[in-house]
Design goal:
Layout: E1 14-15, H1 20-29, E2 34-39, E3 42-48, H2 49-52, E4 73-74, H3 79-89, E5 93-97, E6 103-108, H4 109-117, H5 120-123, E7 127-134, H6 140-148, E8 154-163, E9 166-173, H7 178-187, E10 191-194, H8 200-216
Parallel strand pairs: 1-2, 4-5
Antiparallel strand pairs: 2-3, 5-6, 7-9, 7-10, 8-9
Helix pairs in contact: 3-4
Length: 218
């Protein structure tokens, strides 16, 4: 299904000449974080529910132009960039414009997340592994090589955190022994942030520690 099929038109943009009270009433009826605003039929941006409830209801939208946020996506924007736009603007509604800047409607966050959940990264069975390494030392080609050298399939990988000089990568692995993959990552100097309950390396260390402790106290 094309992303454009998810464009919704049930909420029309309000005009800059509309009263703030109209916006407040609309927000009370909806669950959206923002409402699109237009002037003379031209999209201006969105105004947030948080801001609207701070304004006097008798004012008109143009009195609060400074609160209008000009975010949008194109009808040709891919779904990952659309998802990023949602995150960057802390919104659950995303206006869609064509190449002539004509307002077409909007995407709803839940619909885009649903698309994300249908990707093999989430829908296919497998294990999740989170690894960490220096920002100048890791590479996706190396990560792929480590996974595939253990006869496993890489279903997806993305950078889930950057903290100083460290990069954290979340990996979805389709098949193969996660324990063997974990050991290989360790040999390549990756820190295992989150692994699998079958990580025998940790269990082995625990058992050896317990044995040594018992031996020393004999």
């Amino acid at each position: 299904m094309q992303l454009q099929d998810f464009v919704i038109n049930d909420v029309k943009p309000l005009s800059t000449t509309d009263k703030i009270g109209d916006l407040q009433l609309l927000f009370n009826q909806l669950t959206y974080s923002h409402i699109p605003i237009q002037k003379d039929g031209i999209y201006q941006g969105c105004i947030s529910e948080t801001d609207v409830h701070c304004f006097e209801s008798a004012k008109i939208v143009s009195d609060c132009n400074y609160a209008i946020e000009g975010f949008f996506v194109r009808q040709t924007t891919n779904w990952l960039d659309v998802l990023e736009a949602f995150a960057q603007n802390d919104s659950n509604i995303m206006p869609v414009l064509d190449h002539n800047n004509k307002y077409l409607g909007y995407y709803e966050l839940n619909d885009i997340i649903h698309l994300f959940n249908e990707t093999p990264f989430f829908s296919e069975p497998g294990g999740i592994l989170i690894v960490e390494k220096g920002i100048h030392d890791y590479s996706f080609s190396e990560i792929s090589q480590i996974v595939e050298s253990n006869d496993a399939k890489l279903l997806g990988a993305f950078i889930s955190k950057m903290d100083g000089d460290l990069v954290r990568v979340t990996i979805k692995i389709g098949n193969g022994s996660l324990n063997e993959i974990i050991q290989t990552f360790r040999r390549y100097s990756y820190n295992i942030v989150s692994g699998h309950e079958d990580d025998s390396y940790i269990e082995s260390l625990k058992s050896r520690s317990q044995y040594l402790d018992k031996y020393l106290n004999m």
